[in-house]
Amino acid sequence: MIDIEVLRRVAQTIAERKGADPSSSYVSSLFHKGTDAICKKVAEEAAETIMASKDGDVGHVVREVCDLWFHSMVLLAHHGLTVEDVLHEFRRREGISGIDEKRSRTGG
Ligand SMILES: N=c1c2ncn([C@@H]3O[C@H](COP(=O)(O)OP(=O)(O)OP(=O)(O)O)[C@@H](O)[C@H]3O)c2ncn1[C@@H]1O[C@H](COP(=O)(O)O)[C@@H](O)[C@H]1O
Questions:
Q1: Protein residues whose CB sits closer than 6 Å to any atom of ligand 1
Q2: More exposed terminus of the chain, fewer Cβ within 10 Å: N or C?
Q3: With contact defined as beta carbons under 8 Å apart, do 33 and 66 qualify?
């Protein structure tokens, strides 16, 4: 099994790209373009993930979800957030049924 450390390493590389030359780094070029460009890539990759799912090609699904996670990590870094913040949120939610959580919000 591949360990989740790869996410931390990629997140570290993304963070280091903040001050890098946009002509030599794709991540730096996204930071340079700003919020709209980063959000556009996240939306594109989400749409491509949906299309891959409809294709039924599982390898394609994996590649598109990887693109989606990667661009979401760029978005997190753009907001000064990290993979750790998302992992903490997963930990907080762990074991809480989505049905119970919704009921606690809506009272239904
Ligand atoms: N994981 C990735 C990663 N996944 C996807 N991509 C790039 O994301 C881009 C967008 O993907 P698309 O499928 O939309 O391709 P496209 O149509 O050519 O994209 P656009 O022209 O619309 O931007 C492509 O250029 C991919 O190469 C990535 N670029 C970088 N990384 C990681 O980020 C690190 C830093 O990258 P640099 O900043 O480029 O050094 C790398 O070492 C990797 O670990």
A1: 10, 13, 17, 25-28, 44, 67, 70
A2: N
A3: no
Interacting residues of 4 by C-beta distance below 8 A, sequence separation 6+:
none
The model's pTM is 0.93
Burial 66-93, CB ≥16 within 10 A → b, else e: ebbebbbbbbbbbeeebbeebeeeeeee
Where are the chain's structural domains? 5-106
pLDDT digits (tens, 9 = 90+) for 32-82: 999 999 999 999 999 999 999 999 899 999 999 999 999 999 999 999 999
Question: Measuring from atom 29 of ligand 1, which residue has the nearest CA?
Answer: 26
Q: Hunting for tokens 């939610």 — which residue is that?
A: 93
Closest CA to 36 of 83, 86, 78: 78
ipTM given for this complex? 0.92
Q: Which single residue is written with the structure tokens 């749409």?
A: 47
